[in-house]
Amino acid sequence: MIQKIAITSSMNLDPFIEVCEEHGVAWRNVAENHGLPRDGTAGIRWIPTQFAMSFVHELATITGEPLGRLAGERYDLAKLNPLIAEELAQAGGLEQAFELVMKHFPDSSNDTLLWPEKVDGQWMLCFRAIYPITLAGASHAEWFRLIVLMSLFRPFLPKGWQPKELWLCSPPPKKPLPSYLSKTKVRYSAPHSAFPLPFAEGYCPFVAPSEPSAWLDSLLALASTYAGMPEFSVHWLSRLTNTTPRTLQRQLKKHGLHFNQVRNEARYSQAKALLSSTEMTVMEIAWRTGYSDSANFNRAFRAWAGVTARQYREQHSRSRKATGYQSPSGHQ
After folding, report:
1. Of the candidates 259, 286, 276, 270, which has an alpha carbon nearest to the alpha carbon of residue 312?
2. Are 184 and 162 in contact (CB under 8 A)?
3. Prediction pTM value
4. Is the pLDDT of residue 322 over 80?
5. Which of 104-113, 211-220, 258-267, 322-331 is modeled with the greatest confidence?
6. Reading across the β-sheet that carries 122-129, which strands appear in turn?
7. What is the distance between the alpha carbons of residues 171 and 107, in angstroms, rounded to a whole number?
């Protein structure tokens, strides 16, 4: 079987296991049922995100608790990753802490996009999972990620800080929010998750390189990372890079490019990779590449490749068999 691309570190499950042990839940049996190791916290492993989330979903069903939030409150970076915790503790302020979090966040999972965005004059730290919020366990994972990220920045914020607002893809929870969110306005069913970070005036999270070639490389790297988001547009990218849509288009034109071309090539590249190297359904790949339904995705893919996504996968599969290609796991 071809391995799934979305993976997460087993250390992210440690706080969930801690909550379950407090509630007397036999989590080892549940872990085994979802293809996860029974020894839990014994060393760091990379595990499929889908397995981890189905595991969390069943645990939440058993406990009846807001498991993602409770696990996030127990997250201890110093215990789980002391080297990164030490580096973060030495940060000179919120801005440097932000840069370190952006640098190290991919070390814990590859299933979430993280970016800064200025909304109504306020910088927000935004994040979005590569899977839909309707997937079993997704809302618990979102709450966990939110609480963990806020905890990483609390040492650099005023004592007693509460975010003025939160954005969550999840629907409203059944249980009341904790006291530390009592003054927070929460927007549920949002397009992505977010909370405000009070950066110093004039601070820009993204600084464009001065060399034209380096600027283009940076922009293409951003497109490769974020093109799979439905809201990825010239306006969105210009906000991220602290410029205007007109200036961004003009800079791209100097390199013989147009924004739509950059976005489409990034999405096409992602789609080809997912179709040829994973067992994700076409609908899942459509979601991963910025489309809310498979019909629009297939229409776009046919325009790019001349065939539908399913036909491309079949052609690639036949080609692999003809050449005797084997995956690293030894399977064709």
Report:
1. 276
2. yes
3. 0.82
4. no
5. 258-267
6. 112-119, 122-129, 193-196, 165-167, 185-187
7. 28
14 closest CA partner among 38, 41, 42, 48: 41
The answer to whether the CB of 238 falls within 8 A of the CB of 245 is yes
Beta bridge partners, 127, equal: 114, 193
In the numeric block, which tokens belong to residue 251? Answer: 């800079």
Query: What are 173-177's contacts with CB under 8 Å, separation 24+?
Result: 173/66, 173/69, 173/139, 173/143, 174/66, 175/65, 175/66
Helix (H, G, I), strand (E, B) or coil at 48: strand
Query: What does each C-alpha distance from 77 to 34, 93, 148, 193, 234 come to in angstroms?
Result: 26, 18, 9, 21, 36
pLDDT above 50 (res 81): yes
Half-sphere exposure of 127 (CA within 13 A, CB side): 25
Mean pLDDT across 253-263: 95
Helical H segments across the chain, by residue range: 14-22, 27-33, 49-63, 67-73, 77-80, 82-89, 94-104, 138-153, 212-226, 234-240, 245-254, 259-277, 282-288, 294-305, 309-323
48 in Cβ contact with 7 (< 8 Å): yes
Question: At CA 45, angle to CA 168 and CA 155, rounded to 5?
Answer: 50
- Number of helices (H), then strands (E), belonging to the chain: the values are 15, 7
Contact (CB, 8 A) for 163 and 198: no
Q: Which residue has the tokens 């992505």?
A: 192
Region 12-37: mean pLDDT is 90
Determine the length of the chain.
332
